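Lecture 7 notes: from sequence to structure.
We start with the chain below.
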Amino acid sequence: MLVLRYYERFADHAVSVARRVVYLVTGDYADEIDPATAAAGAAGTSSAGS
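Predicted structure tokens for the same chain:
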């Protein structure tokens, strides 16, 4: 049971890192991005207004 708690914390940290990477790449917070349009924007264009 203790191992599962560590896996959960590891997953929480991974999500945190992924959200920071999304912000660094797109300039938008991950919570504000529409998943339907995120796949279209993954081709290299940014919606940061550049």
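Points to note: The radius of gyration is 14 Å. The chain has a mean pLDDT of 77.
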